[in-house]
Amino acid sequence: MNIFGKLLPTTIDFITHRSFSMTIPLYDLQKVSRVHVVDNSKLALDGNVYKRMPRIIHCYKKNNNLTRTRLIAGLGDKVLLAIKGQMKKAIIVGCRQRIRKPNVPQFDKNNVVLIDDDGNPIGTRILAPIPAFFRTRGDLAKIAAIATTFV
């Protein structure tokens, strides 16, 4: 056998060792997703320039399919963030998507707004545009009240 036969892999190696992913693409946020905090609270302004970006550590929305264990969250869902060594609750106001969904605005960053335990926003102003359907949802009316622009 020549030297090239030992260096080049056979076709059986390509079949047994896949180098691509077989999972479906995920279009919402999940645990360990990095986000940007877009309100003007002191924790948000310091957390965006801290050595680690804020990350989602828990999603409060459960998936409808009971066989899947991955918790995902989309626009308007409540999540728990790890920001600057603290745990804070937040609402997702912008979600980056690879495939456009109908009647849902498309954002270039994953944006969140910090809230307290009662659901009131911690900051007094939101610095990024938020979806227009936040005005009609009752639980998100306080966030819509302090927003400057809608998409």
UniProtKB/TrEMBL annotation:
Keywords: Mitochondrion, Ribonucleoprotein, Ribosomal protein, Transit peptide. Pfam families: Ribosomal_L14. GO terms for molecular function: structural constituent of ribosome. InterPro entries: Ribosomal_uL14 (IPR000218), Ribosomal_uL14_sf (IPR036853). One of its GO terms (biological process) is translation. It is found in: Mitochondrion. Signal peptide: none annotated. One of its GO terms (cellular component) is ribonucleoprotein complex. HAMAP family: Ribosomal_uL14 (MF_01367). Belongs to the universal ribosomal protein uL14 family. This is Large ribosomal subunit protein uL14m. The lineage of its organism: Eukaryota, Metazoa, Spiralia, Gnathifera, Rotifera.
